[in-house]
């Protein structure tokens, strides 16, 4: 199922790397639904009440939407000025624009997302220690749970708007928004939000500016 096909061409010469460059969409909720649940449970066990737990979770989700926008606008569309720049960009994000119908290259491979999660957890822990004199360092549990939930929503939404037919007004709007980024040259440097268009409005990348 995860080997090279005409619909999912070979990306790496190495068979192992190429195999793991493909991932079915359902692996993301398989990993991150339990992760989110564990984060909320740890937050509750640390003594955080339900109201603050919900607020911390929503804060993390909100933070994710900005991270999603920022990463797509900057890192994903960055082509380093070096001999390896084009290859770097292709592996990171260009593959998706080139083979946008590849159903197995629409969500991030677990090794990458888990590695990024470890970095984010470390940053949150470090921030919590700095803020500990003023803020009890229990908030990262639910906050990271919100980030993980936002990431899961992003990846599943990304798959859905590429390979399904949305029936809701929101789903149709997100699909049209993302399709313009892919297929309309005027929008190749605009419309970076996938799970939400909020930050495109804030940073004026929603429509072509006159």
Name the descriptors.
mainly alpha, globular, 8 helices, about 210 residues, about 0% strand
Topology of helices and strands:
Layout: H1 15-20, H2 27-45, H3 50-75, H4 85-98, H5 110-130, H6 140-163, H7 169-183, H8 198-202
Helix pairs in contact: 2-6, 3-6
What percentage of amino acids are in beta strands? under 5%
Total beta-strand segments? 0
State the separation between the terminal residues, measured CA to CA: 47 Å
| Estimated structural class | mainly alpha
The DSSP helix count reads 8
Q: What is the molecular shape?
A: globular
Helix content: 55-70%
**What is the element string, with H for helices and E for strands?**
HHHHHHHH
Mean pLDDT: 90
Regions with little confidence, pLDDT below 50 for 5+ residues = none
Please describe the biggest sheet, giving its number of strands, its sense, and whether it closes into a barrel: none
- The total number of structural domains is 1
Radius of gyration: 18 Å
